[in-house]
Amino acid sequence: MWCFRLSHLHGRLQNLLSRGVTCSAFQQPNFKSLFPLAIRWHHTASKSLNCAWQQHEDHFELQYANTVMRFDYVWLRDHCRSASCYNSKTHQRSLDTASVDLCIKPKTIRLDETTLFFTWPDGHVTKYDLDWLVKNSYEGQKQKVIQPRILWNAEIYQQAQVPSVDFQSFLETNDGLKNFLQNFLLYGIAFVENVPPTQEHTEKLAERISLIRETIYGRMWYFTSDFSRGDTAYTKLALDRHTDTAYFQEPCGIQVFHCLKHEGTGGRTLLVDGFYAADQVLQKAPEEFELLTKVPLRHEYIENVGECHNHMIGVGPVLNTYPWNKELYLIRFSKEKIYMVNRQWSSSLQSYIPKKTLTYSHSRTSNEYRKGLI
């Protein structure tokens, strides 16, 4: 097999895939019960806009798009997008954050259609589009899904009948690439058919997706069961369900496998949706899911074979979630490479119970999608 470790999707994904995310809005609170009668909200003239705001001593509060948001004044000043504060060509800040008074407050605030204008003590004017504020507010981020996914087990994936993409279409057309990326981003796996069994064509495919990451194995490499490296993947032993490079401090995000030649029997490809397995843990044992997001484990890779001498350690929780919306974005799990559960990090069965639960969820036959015998 040729195996590639790719670090991230190329920026072209943003151009090819623009997805609208449907978000559930917060329930609108009763403001009369939240604030004393002396506080006055500034309402827009247009009822359809449904926008209101309140100036507090140290922050600005905005009610818009069924969301109540709070912005510190210093944050608003620091995120000014005027030409003198922000370079729109490089998308980099020009304003020196340290120069902003931490106690800054606007002199005036006004609304023009869907744009808020803040005039600061030095006369500088900052304008904010209401939708931009929703998108970049903490409250808005809590409602937003970063990466929509379709969680699957064997039955769900088979019934979905996700089509493979032909190599020529993938390589030569935007539609072919888009179809592949949509499958990959939604399901976590995608297949390209009719790829010529050569290193050159495999590399072209990989570079069509993203940049190829340099690792201790190189950018791309061939492996077979000759134990040329100190890893079970280089033997004839079966590989259990796992995520690769868990011993990297930053595990690889995309892997490309291409079987160039097969002799004998075996070689079945076993795939499991780790996000589906993690969701099963969340639904059945939320306290164990929480532990898996907090207790760090040490994955370790040690090899002393031939001229290969490597010792790599990656430390982190099994499940990684965004702190603002608890969305799962990374799984680091390889039973064979977990070095030890450090007693300084966990006590008693704190680490073993959730790890056992996730292992069981991973290993259920109904969750496994098998890509035939090769």
TrEMBL record:
One of its GO terms (cellular component) is mitochondrial matrix. GO terms for biological process: carnitine biosynthetic process. It catalyses: N(6),N(6),N(6)-trimethyl-L-lysine + 2-oxoglutarate + O2 = (3S)-3-hydroxy-N(6),N(6),N(6)-trimethyl-L-lysine + succinate + CO2. Pathway: Amine and polyamine biosynthesis; carnitine biosynthesis. Residues 161-330 form the TauD/TfdA-like domain. It comes from the Eukaryota. Coiled coil: none annotated. Keywords: Carnitine biosynthesis, Dioxygenase, Iron, Metal-binding, Mitochondrion, Oxidoreductase, Transit peptide. Residues 54-133 form the Gamma-butyrobetaine hydroxylase-like N-terminal domain. It is an enzyme of class 1 (oxidoreductase). Its cofactor is L-ascorbate; Fe(2+). One of its GO terms (molecular function) is iron ion binding. Gene3D superfamilies: 3.30.2020.30, Clavaminate synthase-like. InterPro entries: AlphaKG_dependent_hydroxylases, GBBH-like_N, GBBH-like_N_sf, TauD-like_sf, TauD/TfdA-like, Trimethyllysine_dOase. Homodimer. Converts trimethyllysine (TML) into hydroxytrimethyllysine (HTML). NCBIfam families: carnitine_TMLD. This is Trimethyllysine dioxygenase, mitochondrial.
